[in-house]
Amino acid sequence: MPAMTYLQAISDAMREEMRADERVFVMGEDIAVFGGAFKVTDGFLDEFGPARVMDTPLAESGIVGCAIGAACEGLRPVAEMQFADFVSCGFDQLVNVAGKMFYRQGLSVNITVRLPSGGGFSGGPFHSQNPEAWFMHSPGLKVVAPSTPEDAKGLLIRAIRDPNPVVFLEHKHLYRRVRGEVPAGRYETEFGARIARPGSDLVVIAHGAMVHTALEATEDSEASIEVLDLRSLVPLDEAAILDSVRRCSKVVVVDEANQTCAAGAQVAALIAQHGWEDLDGPVVRVGSPDVPIPFSPPLEQAVLPQPDDIREAVRELLDY
Amino acid sequence: MSSSTTDLTMPQMGVSVAEGTVVEWRKQVGDWVEADEVIASISTDKIDTDVEAPATGRLAEIMVAEGETVAVGAVLARIATDAPAEAEANGSSSGGGTSEADVALEAPGEAGELQGDTGRPGQAPLSRVVARGRAGSARFSPVVARMAAEHDLDLAQIEGTGRNGRVRKQDVLAHLERSAAPEPPMHIESPYRPDPPAPAQAPVSADGPAGASLSRMRRTIGRAMVESLHTAATCTTIAEADMTRVAAARKALGTSFLPLVARATVETLRAFPALNATLEGETYTRYDDRVHLGIAVSLGDTEPASPAGTGEQGLIVPVIRDAQELSVEGLATRIRDLAERARAGDLSPDEVRGGTFTITNPGGYGSILATPVINQPQVAILDTEAVVKRPVVITDALGEDAIAIRQMTYLCLSWDHRALDGALAARFLRALGERLEGWPLP
Asked: What residue spans define the domains of chain A?
């Protein structure tokens, strides 16, 4: 298997699907001639031509709305928000139109909206957010967030083929920092959780970049710490979560997003209701405080969950 | 209302008994009890006995539930000595205060009604409330509470390793693992019994035999035996002895072999005081001229042919204190008395403690060799096996060898290599054998 970066795996997924399925096309700001702000679609214009690799105006509402229309006509658009933060401009199209189309009119909205998300590189308040919870709260959308190159490719292919609108959160900080073996060819990864590292004393539940932070924070622990990578937030793999809780009985839930109503809040609520009799301590959450992400590197570091924050939470809960 | 109460405490049963278990309450909260009336049965690791009321009054409070084990001196119950007798029980609320004892007293004397949940604190199961209070924290995490319910555990008995002594899931798991540890094979504690069927594993299919938990006696024996094997460096030395003269003497006395072997052992021990000793940790204690001789008494079915002879009843080792002062006849009488009372459950705790050497005697089952387990903290145990007629080479008065039919036995001595070495064990057995072989003819 070839080794790829997380970013290359995302490119690879789109390229392979576009080669195999002419209904698939990509659109977004600067993605064609420039190859995308992060060069995810570099070379796509040459290979697939301007009809399937479209630069758009700086208007997220237009991008998402156009994609919805194309999907209703039977195409499979993949729309890139240059930064996940900008999706708020396309919010109405995504939440009110895409999410409700099937419910109202029985039409499939087979779109994939890619959201380069997350912080950790001094991107500041407009280029660092993790908006997954907004869309988890909007019925009709699916929300996935891979942490590894292999999953990034498999989940994106699965998202492109899924007949529902899928919000695909790709973590910018992982783009070139994470490298791993990625199967060649077209394969789908199920929208479900995976155990990143098995354990029995405590489980850290995370998604996206926080999976790596959790693994790093607990790799030297004397206790047996499980790390559960959610991968998919909608649908949420409740069975996998409750299974980990049943075995470990102590849970730390990590979000990179600000904590209030974050994805981890849903996980914690699920455990409180359905995993209650398996708990041997409080469900502990780690996440960012409810503030915008600062530019200043030391301040940003203070805001985003660091390995030490997770380490401390784990130690406290183990001692409980 | 001034509440004058008398405490009922876990009695001291024998000098080295540290704790006891409440087996049964014969009286319930609210019952009237007379002084010296039996109100509970208790059990130590060896002895079951009754506890009498220290004063006349009404049983106001039970602190220790059935099945709980507490230290000697712990308060088991309170008796309200100023409580009105039967008839006036309900009209006694002269004072305004309602102590716990008052609430309990107002309840009707029927235990069944006390158990009912009336929604009034103090009236429902008092003992449970108290027990939880003693555990340090009555709050358990959901998983711990669930596991306790599933396995019917008393969480007060589990030591918590969490913060502030909280009982954690791993504490419960460790407790369950300990309880589920495989039991030792039964022949260890009962060398002269036929091996019972292998301990039943968890039934694989529904039509397999149903398992049952071991009796208290078996668990106690099992613990003691495994602990002995884990503690001592147990070795067994075996010597042969010609019992022909002893056989003649015992016939004349009308006893079994045991009192004679016991007498010979006591005399031999005085020449080998290193074996008449205890070893506790690093502390080695010799008793020299005083021999407190333990005699293993089987409590089981005495009919070896009975299918019930599975070792279920167990065995006990009463101790003959200062056995060196008793003649063969005296030993025979004491052994018979102790055995009878042991089987009747009438031994006092002090009669099963303080031994310095033990003899286990297989009786007439015909086995010829065994490796007994040392009765801790003693350093040796003698196992005497069947006396059988065998052709042996003897030397006659003229110094000529001849083959003769003699009554032979094997003397099996298990000893603790931490306390002594094999040569001493062999010399002891040789000396014992010579004493038996030279037994004066009647």
From this structure: 3-181, 194-319
Q: Cis peptide leading into A163, omega within 30 of 0?
A: no
Class of domain A3-181: alpha beta
Partners of residue B170 in chain A, C-beta under 8 Å = 201
Q: How far apart are CA A80 and CA A83, in angstroms?
A: 8
Minimum Cα–Cα distance from A245: chain B residue:
B143
Does the distance separating the beta carbons of A319 and B143 come in below 8 Å?
Answer: no
Task: Report DSSP state, residue B378.
Answer: B
Q: Do A277 and B169 touch (CB under 8 A)?
A: no
Residue A278 has pLDDT above 70, yes or no: yes
Closest CA to A280 of A247, A240, A243: A247
CB within 8 A of A247, min separation 6: which ones? A200, A203, A226
Cβ atoms of B158 and B175 closer than 8 Å = yes
Distance CA B80, CA B55 (A): 9
d(CA B340, CA A262): 76
Does the beta-carbon distance from A249 to B162 stay under 8 Å?
no
Q: How far is B137 from chain A (nearest CA, A)?
A: 14
Chosen for mutation from B137, B140, B143, B163 (greatest number of chain A CBs closer than 10 Å) is: B143
CB contact under 8 A, A280 and B141: yes
What is the C-alpha separation between A132 and A138, in angstroms, rounded? 10
For residue A92, the 8-state DSSP code is I
What is residue B88's DSSP assignment?
Answer: G
Which DSSP category does A95 fall into?
I
> A201: which chain B residues are within 8 Å (Cβ-Cβ)?
170
B143/A320 touch (CB, cutoff 8 Å), yes or no: no
Nearest CA in chain A to B148: A277
Whether A110 contacts A116, CB under 8 Å: no
Known catalytic residue: B151? no
CATH of A194-319, one of 3.90.550.10, 3.30.1300.10, 3.40.50.920, 3.40.50.620: 3.40.50.920
**Helix or strand run (H / E) with residue B403:** strand B401-416
Q: What is the pLDDT of residue A314?
A: 97
**N-to-C CA span, chain A:** 44
CA B169/CA B171 separation, integer angstroms? 5
10 Å CB burial of residue B419 (0-12, 13-18, 19+) is buried
| Token output for A73 | 């006509």
Per-residue pLDDT of B112-144, as tens digits, reads 444 434 433 433 333 333 333 334 456 899 999
Cα pseudo-dihedral B325, B331, B337, B339, rounded to 10: 120
Mean local confidence (pLDDT), B264-285: 92
The CATH class of B5-134 is mainly beta
All structural domains of chain B with their residue ranges = 5-134, 142-179, 216-437
Strand B57-62 to B32-33 pairing: antiparallel
Six token digits for residue A298? 């030391």
Q: How far apart are CA A79 and CA A61, in angstroms?
A: 11
Give the pLDDT of residue B138: 66
Which chain B residues touch A279 with a CB distance below 8 Å? 141-143
Alpha helices in B42-199 (DSSP H): 100-106, 111-115, 126-134, 142-151, 169-179
| A187-207 per-position pLDDT tens digit | 999 999 999 999 999 999 999
The chain B residues in contact with chain A (CB within 8 A) are 141-146, 162-163, 166, 168-170
Which amino acid makes up residue A43? G
Q: Answer yes or no: same fold for A3-181 and A194-319.
A: yes
Distance from CA of A314 to the nearest CA of B (A): 14
- B421 catalytic? Reply is yes
- Distance from the Cα of A250 to chain B's closest Cα (Å) equals 10
The structure tokens listed for B244 are: 């022909």
